[in-house]
């Protein structure tokens, strides 16, 4: 799937506005992304808590609608990310927060057309049996998958790096959880940065798990900055994903080395819009 000279795939991109355009307040980022040429965006959980006020939800929805972009992905509430928390799926004692954030996320998705939800698994907890956490995770994921299925959406499971207490580190770890559920709409989120940093061989992951992959995200490694700042052949890996049958979006989820607009020089403006 090779296009113009130097372009080795035609997969569509979506801009992660929880990590891009952070020079601006969150509610102004969708407009900035549209001005930069993007037509699709994704976010981590965009609120401070699991149960934002309706007015906060409305402002978020309107910021996307008014920008004229499509929401392609949304994380469920993952706790205090800045403090190191990485999801509530397996967090015993925070079931109510998980449930309310799921309801809110589904409601946002119904309005904006989003059909993919990232359910971060959650860190291992001191003093809690991992088996108890895993049982709760399967319960929560089954509930989330059922809610998502009603609107034709999927749940994706993301291996993460940089957080030793987070148990999903490789593509195989995430797929193993999905296998226990046996649900078609629970799939792998292949963040090529996290997988590479954790030691997964990306070519092997692509060869084995592309049929199980619901979403892809990119950043270069080391550093987690834009393509070209590290050692990964991201264009080549995306070409292989496309050749293996992946047709979803590619989430641009890196920490810009410099201003966001300057960091996007690797991606010509004509390749940013795809809807």
TrEMBL record:
Keyword flag Isomerase: yes
InterPro entries the UniProt entry points to: HyI-like, Sugar_Epim/Isomerase, Xyl_isomerase-like_sf, Xyl_isomerase-like_TIM-brl
Residues making up the signal peptide according to the UniProt record: none
Presence of keyword NADP: no
Family annotation (SUPFAM superfamilies): Xylose isomerase-like (SSF51658)
Domain (Xylose isomerase-like TIM barrel) ranges: 31-268
Annotated keywords: Isomerase
Pfam families: AP_endonuc_2
Family: Belongs to the hyi family.
Protein name, entry field: TIM barrel protein
Organism the protein comes from: Amycolatopsis rhabdoformis
């Amino acid at each position: 799937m090779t296009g113009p000279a130097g372009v080795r795939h035609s997969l569509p991109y979506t801009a992660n506005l929880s990590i891009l355009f952070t020079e601006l307040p969150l509610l102004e980022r969708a407009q900035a992304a549209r001005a930069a040429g993007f037509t699709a965006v994704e976010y981590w959980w965009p609120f401070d808590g699991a149960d934002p006020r309706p007015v906060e939800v409305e402002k978020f929805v309107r910021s996307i609608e008014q920008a004229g972009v499509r929401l392609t992905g949304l994380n469920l509430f993952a706790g205090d990310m800045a403090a190191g928390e990485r999801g509530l799926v397996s967090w015993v004692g925070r079931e109510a927060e998980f449930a309310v954030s799921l309801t809110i996320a589904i409601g946002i998705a119904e309005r904006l057309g989003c059909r993919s939800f990232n359910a971060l698994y959650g860190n291992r907890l001191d003093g809690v049996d991992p088996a108890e956490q895993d049982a709760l995770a399967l319960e929560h994921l089954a509930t989330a998958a059922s809610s998502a299925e009603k609107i034709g959406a999927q749940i994706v499971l993301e291996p993460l790096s940089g957080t030793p207490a987070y148990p999903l580190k490789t593509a195989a770890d995430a797929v193993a959880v999905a296998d226990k559920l046996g649900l078609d709409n629970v799939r792998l989120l292949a963040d090529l940065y996290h997988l590479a940093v954790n030691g997964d061989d990306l070519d092997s992951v692509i060869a084995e798990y592309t049929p199980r992959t619901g979403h892809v995200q990119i950043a270069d490694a080391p550093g987690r900055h834009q393509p070209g700042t590290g050692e990964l052949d991201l264009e080549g890996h995306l070409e292989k994903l496309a050749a293996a049958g992946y047709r979803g979006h590619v989430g641009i989820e890196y920490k810009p080395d410099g201003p966001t607009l300057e960091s996007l020089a690797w991606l010509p403006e004509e390749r940013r819009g795809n809807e």
